[in-house]
């Protein structure tokens, strides 16, 4: 007897992988596993696996597995981000400027302050200034997962604020990668990418869902963007933007954008991001003085202080300034201590910060190892600080809810 689709193992697994907490746990688990391998007697095997080359040389796609993870698998993650960004701007909270102003400005402040702090710490080390964007990113999957674990009684407005902030943060991070971390640009390849992208757009606008039509067009777009010199993850965002959010074409009662996000989010959260984390987070900190050298390097210090202090100051300060000088207001359910906890949570850089670090300094360089240590240390510190504040706020909101029910 066939298992009903509603209760099939594949359906249950997909639903599980869509859960924010599960995605965050897999991400952290992959990073911990990478650290264990990189600091064990099998570290050489881990390095060899990351450097193992596979792919068609004729297309210049004979790349190490670590590069496939960063350029290829993360394109899936950014495709889902593109779907989410477009939906938020056209049908979500970002479509109303009054609701979007505070978290959007907070996202901008949360990128400017860490960048300035990093630059200030590295002024005496000009070669390190290329990494200025590393502490500007917020890991949306990690941050939302932590909030889901901590916030059983926290206001829904806090999650909406964090999601909006993280979505805008991702958009800015993508823009930074495209503009500042593209060293050589091949105009013919970039223009060529517009052809399969246009065909993909035309197909999805007409409601085409057939994988044998869309996947080859998406893959060709990715290949040409990769060949152009622009980081290939940008192709994922462009493809996500192409999928319609509004209109009469629906799939099982939802837009094509929501349908694709429902299908691809489990692959992103359950495979693409954890595999990237596994290859990106492995740094040797035991023996060889690597940890000591990293903690005295201005690159590492700039990242840690940028993520922990810069994000908090930037998000909190920008929110206060907008509320002080405009008509925008926080939700009545939120207090400034809630915003403090959220600002600290925004200091979880991880996925995009590790990616920017690789683009800035190159994979396998001593600076790249120091970036990993800085991102891991800064993100962990941000989690611990946010946990303290949000635990206290969670108890506060629980008492308020219990008091309301007691009346």
TrEMBL record:
The chain crosses the membrane at residues 21-38, 58-80, 100-123, 129-150, 157-181, 187-204, 211-228, 234-251, 271-293, 299-322, 334-361, 373-392. Gene3D superfamilies: Na+/H+ antiporter like domain (1.20.1530.10). InterPro entries: Na/H_antiporter_dom_sf (IPR023171), NhaA (IPR004670). GO terms for cellular component: plasma membrane. GO terms for biological process: regulation of pH. One of its GO terms (molecular function) is sodium:proton antiporter activity. Keywords: Antiport, Cell membrane, Ion transport, Membrane, Sodium, Sodium transport, Transmembrane, Transmembrane helix, Transport. It catalyses: Na(+)(in) + 2 H(+)(out) = Na(+)(out) + 2 H(+)(in). It is a multi-pass membrane protein. It is found in: Cell inner membrane; Cell membrane. The keyword NADP does not apply. The keyword Phosphoprotein does not apply. Na(+)/H(+) antiporter that extrudes sodium in exchange for external protons. HAMAP family: NhaA. Belongs to the NhaA Na(+)/H(+) (TC 2.A.33) antiporter family. PANTHER family: NA(+)_H(+) ANTIPORTER NHAA, SODIUM ION/PROTON ANTIPORTER NHAA-RELATED. This is Na(+)/H(+) antiporter NhaA. It comes from Pseudonocardia ammonioxydans.
């Amino acid at each position: 007897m066939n298992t009903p689709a509603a209760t099939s193992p594949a359906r249950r697994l997909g639903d599980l992988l869509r859960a924010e907490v599960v995605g965050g746990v897999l991400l952290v688990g992959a990073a911990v596993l990478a650290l264990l391998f990189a600091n064990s007697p099998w570290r050489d095997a881990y390095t060899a696996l990351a450097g193992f080359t596979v792919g068609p040389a004729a297309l210049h796609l004979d790349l190490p597995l670590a590069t496939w993870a960063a350029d290829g698998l993360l394109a899936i993650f950014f495709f889902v981000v593109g779907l989410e960004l477009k939906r938020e701007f056209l049908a979500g909270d970002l479509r109303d400027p009054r609701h979007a102003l505070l978290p959007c400005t907070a996202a901008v402040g949360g990128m400017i302050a860490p960048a300035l702090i990093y630059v200030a710490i590295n002024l005496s080390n000009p070669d390190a200034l290329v990494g200025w964007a590393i502490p500007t990113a917020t890991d949306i999957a990690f941050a939302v997962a932590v909030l889901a674990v901590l916030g059983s009684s926290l206001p829904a407005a806090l999650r909406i604020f964090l999601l909006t902030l993280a979505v805008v943060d991702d958009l800015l991070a993508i823009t930074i990668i495209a503009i500042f971390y593209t060293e050589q640009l091949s105009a013919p390849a970039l223009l060529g990418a517009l052809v399969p992208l246009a065909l993909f757009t035309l197909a999805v606008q007409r409601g085409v869902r057939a994988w044998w039509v869309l996947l080859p067009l998406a893959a060709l777009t990715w290949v040409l963007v990769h060949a152009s010199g622009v980081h290939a993850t940008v192709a994922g965002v462009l493809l996500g933007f192409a999928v319609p959010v509004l209109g009469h074409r629906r799939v099982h009662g939802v837009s094509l954008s929501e349908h694709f996000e429902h299908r691809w989010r489990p692959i992103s959260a359950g495979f693409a991001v954890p595999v990237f984390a596994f290859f990106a987070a492995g740094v040797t900190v035991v023996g060889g003085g690597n940890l000591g050298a990293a903690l005295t390097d201005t690159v590492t210090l700039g990242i840690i202080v940028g993520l922990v202090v810069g994000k908090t100051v930037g998000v909190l300060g920008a929110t206060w300034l907008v509320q002080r000088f405009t008509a925008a207001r926080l939700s009545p359910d939120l207090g400034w201590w809630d915003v403090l906890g959220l600002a600290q949570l925004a200091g979880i850089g991880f996925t995009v910060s590790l990616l920017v670090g690789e683009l800035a300094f190159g994979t396998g360089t001593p600076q790249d190892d120091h970036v990993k240590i800085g991102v891991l240390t800064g993100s962990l510190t941000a989690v611990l600080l946010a946990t303290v504040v949000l635990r206290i706020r969670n108890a506060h909101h629980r008492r308020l809810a219990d008091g309301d029910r007691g009346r």
